[in-house]
């Protein structure tokens, strides 16, 4: 990707909902507002999600569903060095449309 | 560890942020306060992570690659998103800002076993710690750093229970296997949370300053709104009974626990009931009942065994908050008990406001109550506001109009047709009485707000009182002007006869009752404004001569203004000889006399101090502080800013003010002679005032605090006389060009006799 393409790509993500996972395996879900060359990323109206500690007294065989505990944080900046994963949320319906176009 | 580049990048961002012009004057509160304000409402609902319509696509690679192409410092940002906004962003993984950050190996939650049994001594320890936290919250610390740090409280509140049998610490649904110890703790915690809920609602309903006075933020936790107080009181009552019958513990421990459960029960009942304005006696009973438990509570704390492990700063990570985790606030047991004692005492006194005597006594009550040292707590101050203002019915029984009419009648309009309620009944628009009623109603609607603002303002914290007064005097200036027009207009209906006295003026003189009234209150507030400046240590010691001069200037204007009002009232009384109306006139004259006496004592005292400080300045006994960033003119402008908009009394210009304060043409000895005469006159004034009864001094309902206040003024005045004499002696004994042989100490605020009278202490240097 060239520089201008890269800029366009990042710009196309602005205000979309991103799910940014950090090195301590928390995930932050919020609207993408700003980034720089170090991937320092600003998210607005952000929720923090955390995998709760494993419950005790449950034998290993049983499958358990754990809901992520969430907490509202608002505006956050995630420093690039701690980011391990970035996901973008898309509407499934729109994705199908895009796939058809590209395919 | 931060990489070099990251440092650079954030530095760059920081530089750009710093370059943004932030208007700080609009935002005097801290960023934290703003953050709180922003989330005080409900946060948006949590988005669902799993939804059929939405898929998350991993773009880590593309994103990282694209970002790498950017120049150092280049930003891709939403054009509507400003860097100014980003100042408020929390930096994730920064332990100082990110409340969710965990040290390596650290766990999110405390591995606390809620089923582990507790000793009765430990229950006492936890309860006492919770009480300290509750008091810390009362004095202004947020719940997140106080009560909410308790693991047991957290266990009850999260998830939010909808009924009382969802509150067991072991998450079971029946009380069958709950030990008595746990039941005590649970009942206490439920009572505590419910008490806080009432206090929080009470404070929020009135005027206070968030974070500055009190933090009402509950971090999106419900303070047991779903559980009724009766159920909790029932549980507390049952627990108390079971405890009394228990044989498991020593009598000492048992009594200590009973005392705590009973204290909580009474506290909860108190905070619920004291909001009712029906009976002053019942409010006082609540507080005195609570107070009787305090000595036992206080002394039995030694039996308790603290369990610090049941409090954790980590709980803040679960709270909806944009602020980073902050340490648990620790306040001592002694301070806690002292605060509770004061709360009971102040709460009980605040209820006395409910007995209404007259409008002036009401104002005296409020201002003296708020001047108590230490100032009553925010909760009590909001209770007082509730008693006075709730539902726009003053003290629960009097209309605002009644208070206002009382005040007008006892100052400028005794037995006057303008206040005749009969005017309201007239329906003929051409009738002058109809017009009078309409005009007076229009005046009341404007004046009521300004008048009640004074009362409301005195209920705030000391610094805010002064700040708000700056605005209020401007409001009253406007009111005075508008009232003047109404006065002129009303004359066509009242057919007021003018006074023609060529000695005073060639023009006919009218009474201007409404604007006179407004002027009187404006002057009162201007005096308070200057006096609060002394109390709050606003002025430097070399400015005291000037500020006391200004105080005497305003007080003297008030005395002269009262003289004018007296003249008109007196004339009116001779014309109006209806006996039942005479009492109103006598009452008004009595108030005018009292206020004149008080103004005279004030200006005499202020004059004496002003002259004394001028002499001390002349003798270079008061060090002028080193103030490289301002000059006298700038300081003058700041001090006089609130008075700049005031038409009357005229603002004294800087040059003139420096001259009248320094009085260069007077000799030092003459100044001292004048000062001691003024102090003596003021002393006589205070002595006369101190002998008045509650009715004549318009302090019914607060006579004792009023008398103490007057006596303190008197003591300060006598002490001023002593200081003047000491300076005089030193000046007489001073050889030409020699040392005066004395030095001057200015007592710190709170160390003198009265906060509004700063009296220098003269000591020989030998």
UniProtKB/TrEMBL annotation, chain A:
Source superkingdom? Eukaryota
Q: Which SMART domains match?
A: Sm
InterPro entries per record: LSM_dom_sf, LSMD1_Sm, Sm_dom_euk/arc, snRNP_SmB/NAA38-like
Q: Which Pfam families match?
A: LSM
Q: Which GO terms describe its cellular component?
A: NatC complex
Q: Where is the Sm domain?
A: 8-88
Kindly give the SUPFAM superfamilies that the UniProt entry links to this protein.
Sm-like ribonucleoproteins
Entry protein name: Sm domain-containing protein
TrEMBL record, chain B:
The name this protein goes by in its record = Uncharacterized protein
Q: Which Pfam families match?
A: Mak10, TPR_NAA35
Q: Where is the NAA35-like TPR repeats domain?
A: 350-722
- Belongs to which family? Belongs to the MAK10 family.
Species name for this entry? Hymenoscyphus albidus
The GO cellular component terms are:
NatC complex
Q: Where in the cell is it found?
A: Cytoplasm
Q: What is the lineage of its organism?
A: Eukaryota, Fungi, Dikarya, Ascomycota, Pezizomycotina
Question: Where do the NAA35-like N-terminal domain residues begin and end?
Answer: 73-233
Q: Tell me which domain of life the UniProt entry assigns to the organism this sequence originates from.
A: Eukaryota
